[in-house]
Structure to design on (380 residues):
């Protein structure tokens, strides 16, 4: 599958992606989208997320296909000496290794310390992804998105006000870790330009989860007050919530006093924006219930779709709540190429657009072990 002949920003870079499931594969796909030659190492059984379905396409789950394009698959039995020897040989010519092996697995291979891999391969950038890191009170424990969401406090602030904690529907910890891993790889490659040496990048789910607990962690550190779920509301900004109109719900995200005055003017509540109780965001947060009650009453009389467009025309952030079918069909999604339907591959688009070295979907997700067969692609 070739959508462009452009090499991409990372053309010439060889990546061995020995990770599985989501965070590591997402990192590898990001590098592959921008031109890296990514070889995905799989066990004879394959990455288990090939089975995370239905739906399935060509025998692999949509889940797997969404994070493994622009890769080739090589099956290696790393429990065997022959498989490990092939793996080490691949690293001799690789620029980057992405892996999420258990530390105990590495020790069983004779690697006492993960840092020893870059000692053996001095130019290699080794991106090690774990649940909690390899040391500390939780070191070497396995990490799973929902469990780390829970342990990092994300469930405690998600959900309806007064309700039970709720898992974020999107696997935000795995995806954030994958993005952090890609950033780590690029930082280490930049350092290698200067020093001539690679290094290990230690990226873990727990650190990533704590880092995105914003602004709740920062609020706690500043105030000592433990945050609780607040539904669609924002702990630091009012109005920032869903309001039910006569026809549909609208999300309103008014982040400054000027926008609040515009919103009030459009709602026929201009005097509210001059009231000392509501004039500044700080006062609106203190008087949140009164603000929300007044706005809810005004919104309830309006046609949501038409009024939302009217607000946007005045640069007031307003958005209908769309389902995935609507997002996939949206004109702007198509314009930004954020859904790809090409040949036999349907999946999410590429969010980073570079003007000089654009990313490209050169191939769809790999068949398990395609590089082990006689018909494997011959390209680097």
């Amino acid at each position: 599958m070739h959508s462009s002949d452009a090499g991409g920003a990372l053309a010439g870079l060889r990546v061995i992606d020995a990770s599985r499931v989501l965070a590591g594969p997402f990192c590898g796909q990001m590098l592959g989208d921008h031109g890296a030659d990514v070889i995905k190492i799989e066990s004879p059984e394959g990455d288990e997320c090939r089975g995370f379905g239905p739906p399935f396409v060509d025998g692999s789950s949509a889940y797997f296909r969404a994070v493994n394009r622009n890769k080739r698959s090589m099956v290696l039995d790393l429990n065997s000496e022959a498989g490990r020897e092939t793996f080490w040989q691949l690293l001799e010519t690789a620029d980057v290794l992405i892996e999420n092996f258990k530390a105990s697995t590495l020790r069983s291979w004779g690697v006492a310390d993960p840092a020893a891999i870059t000692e053996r391969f001095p130019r290699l950038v080794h991106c090690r992804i774990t649940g909690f890191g390899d040391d500390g009170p939780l070191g070497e424990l396995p990490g799973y998105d929902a469990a780390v969401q829970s342990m990092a406090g994300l469930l405690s602030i998600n959900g309806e006000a007064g309700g039970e904690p709720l898992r974020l529907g999107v696997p935000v910890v795995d995806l954030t870790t994958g993005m952090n891993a890609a950033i780590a790889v690029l930082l280490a490659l930049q350092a290698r330009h200067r020093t001539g040496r690679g290094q290990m990048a230690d990226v873990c789910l727990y650190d990533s989860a704590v880092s995105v607990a914003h602004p709740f962690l920062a609020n706690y550190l500043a105030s000592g007050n433990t945050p609780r779920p607040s539904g669609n509301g924002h702990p630091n900004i009012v109005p920032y919530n869903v309001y039910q109109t006569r026809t549909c719900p609208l999300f309103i995200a008014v982040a400054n006093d000027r926008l609040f005055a515009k919103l009030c003017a459009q709602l026929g509540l201009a005097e509210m924006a001059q009231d000392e109780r509501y004039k500044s965001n700080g006062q609106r947060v203190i008087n949140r219930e009164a603000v929300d009650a007044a706005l809810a009453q005004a919104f309830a009389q309006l046609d949501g779709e038409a009024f939302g467009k009217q607000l946007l025309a005045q640069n007031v952030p307003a958005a209908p709540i769309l389902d995935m079918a609507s997002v996939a069909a949206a004109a702007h999604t198509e314009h930004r190429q954020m859904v790809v339907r090409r040949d036999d591959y349907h999946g999410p688009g590429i969010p980073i657009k570079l003007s000089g070295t654009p990313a490209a979907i050169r191939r769809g997700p790999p068949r398990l072990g395609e590089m082990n067969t006689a018909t494997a692609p011959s390209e680097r």
User: Anything to note?
Assistant: The radius of gyration is 24 Å. DSSP finds 15 helices and 13 strands in the chain.
